[in-house]
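FIELD: query
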Amino acid sequence: MFELPAELMAKPLALIGLTGLDIANPVHRSIWDAFSNNRRPDCAAVQFKLFNLAHEFPTVKPKRSSYEWYIPKGILKRNWMSKYLNDIPSVVIVFYDLDWNDPLWNEKKMECASRVQSLR
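FIELD: result
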């Protein structure tokens, strides 16, 4: 008898990505623990995943200009469910250390903005 994939057997959890946290830093570690470990049963069913700053998300495929002669190979691709449950987060939370009194405030602000833009 055949078995269903693990993605179909488990309850689907929305994936929330966190980036910019260095869990070797005690403050960052406490933030990560607050998100990942302290989940009450009455909270929304979500899964948190830590992404490093160099993580590359899959690129968006270009849209076809015409579907006139296109014949799909099936309803869903084999890895579609796993990809959206485990690899591509619904939301990415970006953490960035800013010091309000930093003399290079504008440069830090621009660096933070470029980091957010690179995720888009």
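FIELD: remark
The mean pLDDT is 83.
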